[in-house]
Amino acid sequence: MSIQWYPGHMHKAGKEIQSLLPEIDLIIEVLDARIPFSSSNPLLAGFRGVKPCIKVLNKSDLADPGITRQWQSHFERDQDVKALALTIRQPEKFSQIRDLCRQMLPAKSDARKSIHALIMGIPNVGKSTLINKLAGRIIAKTGNEPAITQRQQRIDIGDRIILFDTPGMLWPNIENRNSGYRLAVTGAVKDTAIEHELIALFAAGFLLHHYPDYLRARFQIEPLPENDQGLLEAIGRKRGCLRAGGLVDMDKAAKILLSEVRTGALGPISLETPSVMAQELVELSLLRERKEAQKKARKQQWKNGRSS
Question: Where are the domains of the chain?
Fold first, then answer.
């Protein structure tokens, strides 16, 4: 699955971020705790450079807590990075962000100077909700649809910390097809840009392998089907998604499964681990090498053809 999704305002936002960087002291990157790698925009890593970074693993109540701890340890191998697991259900913990900003920039803290922090995140990771909680008032629009925030804002959140908000950006091409699926499963990509059944089949296959007990408990299916197609059909029959002739309406069944995953009704689920992503990056690197070799071979064939 390859997703091409790069609206004009996101391209503009990228340029605005680069122009802002000289006056930024620290980066706050908001991630979806269920997909910390896939929800991290590789373009943002380039923007950050050597600046200190707080990675907020948001929606942690929807994620597998053991795997979230793995990601925190993984990110904090970089001494300039701190990782916080947060959820809107525990808003009192949001103040930890202010404390960390001061701790990571002791020179600013001692001098009682303002800290300029750039807050970033792809669509639908909960960045706007986080900003509103930090500010103690409604600043940024929130919603379940991605790409709500479109204008850069400067927000004083107290304790001499100024947030520079930016639109949520997806990168121009999601090269790792599994990351594309994971983003779609969690709702980071607009539903109008995906096929529900295709995405739900990916989710079904993953859940059968990693969280079968959740499926049994939630849908009361026993025994579980052996494959993704069978699971989606079983869910459709359990939830009454039937068409004429007793056939399962797979689109309705797909929407039900995706809703259960996105809202956490199925249980706390993480769709990727540091070790899985390391392996996928190796595979992606090999794929790039093969594509480059094929490109060179085609170019050489074209040259040979011209010279003959």
Answer: 8-165, 195-263, 273-308
The residues near 175 (Cβ < 8 Å, ≥ 6 apart) are 2, 284
The whole-number pLDDT of residue 174 equals 65
CA distances from 35 to 87, 90, 106, 151, 256 (A): 15, 20, 31, 25, 20
pLDDT score of 138 more than 90: no
Helix or strand holding residue 177 (H, E)? helix 177-186
Return mean pLDDT, the chain: 85
Is the pLDDT at 152 greater than 80? The verdict is no
Phi, psi of 242 (to 5 degrees): -115, 145
CATH topology (fold) of 195-263: Conserved Hypothetical Protein Ylqf; Chain: A; domain 2 (1.10.1580)
Question: Measured at the alpha carbon of residue 199, what is the angle toward residues 144 and 217, in degrees to the nearest 5?
Answer: 85
Cα separations in angstroms, 141 against 148, 150, 232: 7, 10, 35
Beta bridge partners of 28: 54, 119
7 contacts 172 by C-beta, under 8 angstroms:
no
Strand blocks (E) in the chain: 26-32, 53-58, 81-85, 115-120, 153-156, 161-165
List residues bridging with 4 in a β-sheet. Answer: 173
Closest listed residue to residue 200, CA positions, set 233, 177, 165, 176: 233
- pLDDT(149) > 70: no
- Predicted local confidence at residue 306, as pLDDT: 66
- What CATH code would you report for 8-165? 3.40.50.300
293: left (phi over 0), alpha (psi -120 to 50) or beta: alpha
pLDDT at 157 over 70: yes
Query: Do the strands 115-120 and 26-32 form a parallel or antiparallel pair, or are they unpaired?
Result: parallel
């705790």: which residue's tokens? 33
pLDDT in tens, 12-30: 666 777 778 888 999 999 9
Looking at residue 308, what is its pLDDT?
A: 59
Nearest to 146 by CA among 163, 171, 167, 177: 167
